[in-house]
Design a protein that fits this description.
Distance between the termini: 34 Å
Number of domains: 2
Organism: Actinomyces bowdenii
Radius of gyration: 19 Å
Helix content: 40-55%
Oligomer: single chain
CATH class of the largest domain: Alpha Beta
GO molecular function: DNA binding; DNA-binding transcription factor activity
Number of strands: 15
Domain HTH deoR-type: 3-58
Protein name: DeoR/GlpR transcriptional regulator
Structural class: alpha/beta
Shape: elongated
InterPro entries: Carb_Metab_HTH_regulators, DeoR-like_C, DeoR_HTH, NagB/RpiA_transferase-like, Tscrpt_reg_HTH_DeoR_CS, WH-like_DNA-bd_sf, WH_DNA-bd_sf
């Protein structure tokens, strides 16, 4: 293949998934690792991608926050699988907190399908997740079952339909739960979970502080993507749930930090 054809292939993969691994391009195109890295270097020089450990991700401002509707159309099957796998961690009678995001919304749907859903206490700053939970609680009540306890924080609404800021942080300050489930705009082993929204970062830190166990639920397109601020370092992640095996460097970093890696089937 000509260089521009190889580079177009890389760009197509990045556009479809948010990032690409060198090893995957080597396998797909049957070329050397050195050739792929050279092509990525050329695309970086053109400002079309950003280099990350093991591959490349879409170029973009770390402060740019996509709207919820735009994110909800990306990788729905991966998010469904991640949500179902993460929900398996929740036991009858557990209390849990959910951050905003489309992957945690998929987790919310999986929670409503659990036999022990009515026994749960769920705290969230996600407006879509809260609506889904309230509707499921009404359905449970209509069937003669006890409804779960649903708590929605206050706060200012973000483009990703999360409630953030001082009001949200204050409402979380004295709460304690078994599980905190977090989505993220991006993740690297060095920075941990990141978001482009500073107030969302502060609110997510408050969510982290409520939990005994922190679970990151992120699809593979988030690997190597940067946000303006980190809100949960890798060392504070107890479980990371995703749908694809991460690169060796990320796997090693998770092992060293003591985080359990669960790949959604």
């Amino acid at each position: 293949m000509l260089a521009h054809q190889r580079q177009e292939h890389i760009l197509e993969r990045v556009a479809a998934t948010g990032g690409v691994r060198v090893a995957d391009v080597v396998e797909e195109l049957g070329i050397s690792e050195m050739t792929v890295r050279r092509d990525i270097t050329e695309l970086v020089s053109q400002g079309r991608v950003e280099r990350v450990h093991g591959g490349a991700v879409a170029a973009g401002a770390t402060s740019l926050e996509p709207r919820f509707q735009a994110k909800s159309t990306l990788h729905p099957e991966a998010k469904r699988r991640i949500g179902a796998e993460a929900a398996r961690l929740v036991r009858p009678g557990d209390s849990l907190a959910l951050s905003g995001g489309t992957t945690t919304l998929a987790l919310t749907q999986a929670l409503t399908e659990l036999d022990h859903f009515p026994t749960l206490t769920v705290i969230t700053n996600s407006l879509p997740a809260a609506q889904l939970l309230f509707d499921a609680a009404d359905a449970s009540r209509a069937q003669g079952h006890r409804p779960p306890s649903i708590i929605l924080t206050g706060g200012e609404r973000t483009p990703s339909n999360a409630l953030v800021g001082p009001v949200a942080v204050d409402s979380l300050r004295t709460l304690r739960v078994e599980w905190v489930f977090l989505g993220a705009h991006g993740f690297t082993p060095e920075a941990g979970l990141m978001t482009p929204n500073l107030m969302e970062a502060s609110t997510n830190q408050a969510l982290v502080a409520t939990g005994r166990n922190v679970v990151a639920a992120i699809d593979a397109s988030k690997w190597g993507v940067l946000g303006l601020r980190s809100f949960c370092p890798t060392r504070d992640i107890g479980v990371l749930v995703t749908e694809a095996e991460p690169d060796a460097g990320t796997t090693t970093a998770l092992d060293e930090s003591g985080a359990a890696l669960r790949i959604a089937p």
